[in-house]
Structures are given as structure tokens and as C-alpha cells.
Amino acid sequence: MAIVQMVKVMIVSHRSQASDLLEALQLKGICQILNADEAIVSKDFPELATTAQRPKDIELLLGRLAKCIDFLKNYAENQKGLASIFAPRTVIDEKSYNNVVSDEQILDIIDQCHQCQASIEKLDAECENLTAALEMLDPWSALQTPVEEIGRLKQTTCLAGLLPNQMFEQIQQQLSALDAAMEIIGTSTNKNACIIACLNENLSDTQKLLRSAEFEPVSFQPMTGTIAELISEHTEKLNETQKQLQAQYDKTKLLSKNLLKLQILNDHYENLLYREQTKDTAPATEQTIIMEGWVKKNDYHHIEKLVSKFRASSLSRIEPAEDEEIPVEIENKNYVRPFEVITRLYGMPQHFEVDPTVFLAPFFALFFALCLTDAGYGLVIIALMVYLIKKMQGDKKLMWMLGICSGFTVVAGALTGGWFGDAIQQFIPILKPAREKMMWFDPFEDPMKFFYLALVLGYVQIMAGLVIAFVHNLRRKQYIAGLCDQLTLLVMLNSLVIFAVSKAGVVSVEIGKFFGILAIIPAAVILLFSQRQGGWGGRIGMGMYNLFSTIFYAGDVLSYIRLMALGMVTAGLAVAINVMAQLALNIPYGIGILAMVLVLIGGHGLNMAINALGAFVHTLRLQYAEFFPKFFVGGGKLFEPLSKKYKHIYIEKA
After folding, report:
1. What is the dihedral of CA 430, 434, 439, 442, to 10 degrees?
2. What pLDDT digit, counting tens, does each position of 180-226 carry?
3. Rounded to whole angstroms, how far apart are CA atoms 335 and 358?
4. How would you write 460-499 as a 3-class SS string?
5. How far apart are alpha carbons 482 and 383 in whole angstroms?
6. What is the DSSP letter of 350?
7. Sign (positive/negative) of CA torsion 60, 61, 62, 64?
8. d(CA 526, CA 545)
């Protein structure tokens, strides 16, 4: 339920053991290692700051592996199907992992992949060229003259090309005027394959005329022989190239069976690269590597035990610098931990702040439930989250959080009578007595109760934020800040609320008058001491602004009306869907039942999805915009220990 205490450590290791020590630290995943720019020892001893050396051999191998993996994915059989969406990483055991990373023959597979890829690209380009050549030759199939004889003669020039059909008659007449002749050899879509013969002295005019008619010249160079011979030759080459291409495809498909091995190797070398980069960027002398970093206080004995196994390495605990930024990690009880998603999404707290997770958790779950306010929708989301938790890999905090929020939604829906809208009244009237027994109020019949509930909950959360800030200041022994910044607001705002409700007759007028007078005292403190720096003129001016700004708390409370609005919208749409389903049931010829089922499933599914998203987003906004600013700043640096990370695989522990 708190921010984890961090301990700063320094590990000095001889270069001969540094890599093995880093591998052990990476496997344990409990220590964050600082680079030379971050380490304080580098600032005290600048000569230790080393120039980072890139492990180019590992980077080159990873580049080749990534290229092979992307290439083989196109040919591998996907046996997971839709399951890959939820579990994209392949589960393997440690023995299989070790067998792969120690198998030197896998490097031969990489070479074979690159050879296959190069061959496929080359053969594919040849197929495209041959196919294009055959398409070009096809309209000229009737031409019996060898193509090398088409060209410039002593007195005339022969031009081969394609002429649009609509221009043929017009150009033929104009060519006659230039003493040129044209013969159609064949057709290609909306164009004619033609040969034009013209006198050499008229060649320039003829070419100008043909250009105006969108004539496309065709060159047969460096081909020789008749068109029929060329088509036969190119067809034979194309068939042979396609056979070679298919052989490469078959070979690649066999190689794709090694895809998992390459993925294992890729993850292995990614971790090795991360480790080597950490070593190369740490401060160092000629013989030693100095690893300065952070570890959780509770994990210090683990790292102490680990380092003690290396004779040429030592561990010492050091004090952080005065202005040094301490990394932050948060830990909470199992029932609160899922809500860390909200905190991490906003940003980690500073190391001296309070972890807001435990405080936001009940509010977030309750507000989400009030926004959705339908027990049926809550049960569906719970079932969906249970399925996803079983199927998905990796961090499941979000699924658990939505499951908890949906549990609150079931309760909220039961208390307000929402079971897929008014589905019980419309389709299962036998359950109406049970529904009514569980109900607290009906939002449609008594919307003001929902309105007041939203306002009260909003006010309670805002007051809770001020109380958290006040207690935190007391714990840090910042008594003046707690008194002038939070306690004054707590007393004044609550006094004004009691004074206001006394006007409505909720409490006696005498009590209201007492608290009305009491509110003057904290107001005066805010005016005089909320700004505690600078001259008195500036302090009072800022105090007046701070006192006036308390009016914004009313706007903050009113912001919580969105809880009622979203809850009413969800219920209203659900009722409308049930009405449409009843109307669909009246369709004759037996279609009505099917139509009703489709309307119910599709309508409620869409309503649940849209409003669950709205409930999440708007509840999130209330935490970030109304609750957090009262006591939380954020912007802390996340604790990121050196650890092994896997993109393609998931190693199952024995």
C-alpha cells in the first residue's frame, strides 16, 4: 500500500566476471543499473566515464535474425489461429530454450534463409519480366517476319507500335498523305499492333503525327527470331523459372519449421545485447566495471547473496546524492494491485509522495458501477474478463480491474433494478418480485436520489483527497503546509456545507449559524497564510486569489453529475432496445423470434460496449481531474531493473 523504499548500491566487478555477474542480475531482475551519465561516481571521477562501445556483432546478428523471422512468417503454418491474439508468445520450457541457444547449427539456418530470400526475389523478378515480355509479344503473334529485320532500311523506315482504335482511320488517311503505309498485325485491348513504313525523308513528320495520336513505339531489341519463336522461348523460360521458384518456396516452407528456434534465438540475443549495452555504458577503469544502481530495500539481501558468489566482485550500500532522482515502484495488496493500471497510466508518484492506488481503487470501482448501472452487463463483462484472464499472456491487471469494477456494477444494477434494462419486466415477469426486493430505488421514478448520490460521492472523494494531503504533510512534518493548505479548506468547506443544509432544514438553524461563523476563521488563514513567500502585499494578493478559488470546488463537485448522466443513458438505451425487440417479435412468418434475438444480442452488446468504455473514460477523468490534484503531483521516474524480456516466447518455469 505504499511506495517501495529504495536502496542505492555500488557493485564493483573485475572485467573477467562482469558479464557473468550481469547475466545473474538480469536473470534475477531486481537491480536497476545506471549508465555513466546517470551515475554519481562518474561526476565525482570524470575519468571513469567511458565512451559507449556498440556491440556491432550482436546488432548485426539481430538484424539478420529479424529479417529471417519476418521472411519465414509468411510461409509458416499458423496453428494458433485466433488464440494468437490473446497469447502471441509461444510457451516453451527452459530445457528447450537452452537446447536452442546452444545449438550452433541454427546459424546455418540463417544463411539458408537469406539465400532462399535472395533466390525468391531474383526468380520472382525474372517471372515478372518474362510475363511482361509475353504480354508485349502477344499482339504481334501473327507477325512472321523476324523481329531483327524490322527497322531502318535504305529508303524507308519501319516503325512498330500500338495505336488507339479510335485514332486508326484518321491516322491512316494522314499517313497516306505522307506516302506512308500502315498494316495491323494484331490487337491489344483497345489498341492495334501496327507496323508503319515511311520514306526516310518523311520520318520526322511521320513520327510527329504518330506522337499526336498517342502512338506507343514497341522495340524488340535485343530479341531475334520470329514472334512465334520468341513466345515459345519465353514461355519455356517462364515455366522453368516458375518451377525453380516453387522449389524455393518448398525449401522455405521447410525452413519455416525452424521459425520458433529463430524467435528463441532472437529473444536470447536481445537480452544479451541489453546486458552488453549496460556493461559498456557503465563507468569503468582498465580492469573493473563500476555498476551504480538501485534495488528495493526488501531485495537487498538477495543481491547481497548473489554478488557474494563472485569472488572478484563486491557490493556496497551508498547514500544517494542530495538532488538525485530516486526511481519509484509501487506495491499493493492483491485486491488493490489491479488498480495500479490507473496510477501508472497517469504517471508514477515522486519518491516522497503517497501512492494514490489504494485510495482511488474503491472510488473507481464504485463510479464505474454507477456509470454502467446494469447488473446484466456486469455479469457479461465478468464472464468476458474471466475468459481473457485464462487466455491472455503478460500483465492481466487491467482484466482483473475491470472484473472487480463489473462486480460492483452487478450490485449497483441490482440496487437500481437494471437487468439488461427492463428485460425482467418485459420478458421474465415471474422475476419481478425478486428484482423489487433487491432494489433501493428506481432511477426513472426517482432521478433526484441518483442526482444527490452522485453529488455526495463527489464531495466525499474531494474531501478524501484533502485529508490524504493533510495527513501526508503531517507525516513529513510539514505542519504549516498541512494547516494552511488543507486543514483550512477542510474546515471552511464543511462549515459552509453545514450552513447551507441548515437553510434547507436538514440541521438546526443554530448549528448552521455556528458553522457559518466558524468558516470565517479558516478563510482568514487562507487570506493571510496560503501564500508564505514574498512580501505581505504579494502574499495577501495571492491569498485573496486562493480564497476566491475555493469557489471552484463547487464546480468540481458538480462534475460528478456525469455519474448520474451516464447511468441514466445506459438504462435508457437498454429500455429502448427492449422496446425494439418487442416490436421485432411482431414480425410474422416465424421471423419475429429470430429478429428479436438479433436485436437483443446486437443492441445490448453495442450498448454495453459503448457505455462500458464511457464508464471507464469518465471515471478515469474524475480521478485525474478532480481527485489527484488535491494531493498528487506525479512525474516520478519508474524503477526499471535489468531483467530478461521476451518478445516471441514465454518460458515456463519447471
Report:
1. 10
2. 888 888 887 788 899 989 888 888 988 898 888 888 898 888 888 99
3. 9
4. HHHHHHHHHHHHHHHHCCCHHHHHHHHHHHHHHHHHHHHH
5. 45
6. P
7. positive
8. 10
Instruction: Express each pLDDT in 85-133 by its tens digit.
Output: 666 788 888 888 889 988 888 888 999 999 999 999 999 999 999 999 9
How high is the pLDDT of residue 63?
Answer: 93
Q: Kindly state the helix (H) or strand (E) to which residue 255 belongs, with its residue range.
A: helix 227-255
DSSP assignment string, 601-623: HHHHHHHHHHHHHHHHHHHHHII
Question: Residue 439: its pLDDT value, please?
Answer: 92
The two counts, helices (H) then strands (E), for the chain are: 26, 12
How far is it, in rounded angstroms, from Cα 243 to Cα 252?
Answer: 14
Return the C-alpha torsion angle 342, 345, 351, 356, nearest 10: -20
Whole-number pLDDT of residue 52: 57
Cα separation, 392 vs 91, in Å, equals: 12
Cα first-last separation, the chain: 31
Domains with residue ranges and CATH for the chain: 136-235 (3.30.70.100), 337-372+374-442+560-628 (no CATH)
pTM score of the predicted model: 0.83
Q: Cell 519447471 identifies what position?
A: 654
- Residue of 567, 366, 363, 551 lying closest to 449 (CA atoms): 567
Cβ(6)–Cβ(324) under 8 Å?
A: no
The residue behind cell 440541521 is 507
